[in-house]
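Input record (Table S2, row 458):
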Amino acid sequence: MREKRLYINTIGCQMNVYDAGQIAGVLAPLGYTPTDDIEAADMVVVNTCTIREKAEQKAFSFLGRLTKIKAAKPALIVAMGGCVAQQEGEAVLKRMPYVDLVFGTHAIFRLPEMVRRIEASRCRIVDVRMTEAIEIDRPVDGPLDEGQVSAFVTIMRGCDNYCTYCVVPHVRGREASRHPDRILEEIRMRVDQGIREVTLLGQNVNSYGNKEGLCSFAELLEWVNGVEGLGRIRFTTSHPKDLSDELIQAFGRLDKLCHHIHLPVQSGDDDILKRMNRRYSRSVYLDKLARLRQVCPDIAVTSDFIVGFPGETERQFQRTLELIETVRYDGLFAFMYSDRPNAPAAKFSGKVPESVKKERLQALLDLQQSITREKHEAMVGQVRKVLVEGPSRGLGESAGGNGNPDIRWNGRASSNHIIHFSTADAHCPKKEILTGEFADIMIEGAYAHSLWGRRVQG
Ligand code: SAH
Ligand code: SF4
Ligand code: F3S
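Output record (S-adenosyl-L-homocysteine complex):
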């Protein structure tokens, strides 16, 4: 079998990153090996996202840039996968004449068969069929990057929550959970390959297994915690309405569970939350957070926000800023509201002008930046255990290092903070650290976007 090169461009969330590994994994038996060199590729896949309009545009502009490459190499197979593919289906073939294959979010396991057909007869294929349950659920041995110490493991797909702004339920389908045995099998396989940390993925991991009556998410975590050789567990995303007491307690009980939760709140105003169909109030959210902090006092909390949701008034936006000041997040992602196809909010009145959305976004980010800086400064002098992810390169803020890139490293703390550190000083006799080791780091420098330290003896 001739060796063929596969180039994958991934846009979007961690699920797409995970799916890219699956795509590479299912195509490996056909002779495709991953490449970073698009010119050398025999097949190009763009794994797309449609969460906001900009993400969708990114997918089409990438495909646009392929025109030249395809003209020079007509045998190149061009495929679009992911959420834009699911949303647009046939329309992509009309809009992009050189696209050979459009495959939706439920079609990854059908890829080998489709690619074989295209190789044999150069036909054009669209497969956006969706299924209720995850019918094929075997762990795929997708390739790991060199030195990779952390991996994503999808535990469920789809979403049943229908937040009014969101396209995900329409492009990922109904919520369906994988069987715990398959999940554990996949984690063990990754650990055998050298992975030390897993991040369990789902749009709402808190409702894992409910539909199928499998087990609760907290029970799944307990089993994952028992996997030998695994060092750390993370998960994302947690929907506040389904954050159970059982899960809160897990933070106090499971030694491998990282002290970090990503708990998207979206807005600090009850009326907006209602119209977003989030099904929790500001006070319920704050209550759950208080209980989490009781069980796990050093838990880091991050969140997602949407500014400029239809009808959002200045006063309502202020409520969001007040919430941020109350919670004092360790970090956040904030987005300007974007109309999405099939999402009910696209038809809501009271659209907020782009200029106002921009101003609100900036005000929110400025506030968080000052909180982050203060929180970073308060970490100076603390010792944090990090999982070493690899050597640091090309860093902007160069404190704490000594100019030699070979002896600066990146490590991730349980709280999810990245800490850059050096091993080459008198305090630390051990000069070499292997990626994938745990190390104790004394934090010495704190900046708005980075933390610096040195290794101390654990
Ligand atoms: N399942 C996760 C979020 C997935 S989408 C959850 O429930 O929190 C990631 C983030 O994108 C969302 O948290 C939201 O902040 C943002 N987002 C989703 N739809 C959006 C839209 N139409 N416009 C702007 N931001 C959006
Ligand atoms: Fe979208 Fe809401 Fe589902 Fe998250 S929970 S994916 S925001 S519909
Ligand atoms: Fe984007 Fe699809 Fe993820 S729309 S955010 S890639 S689920």
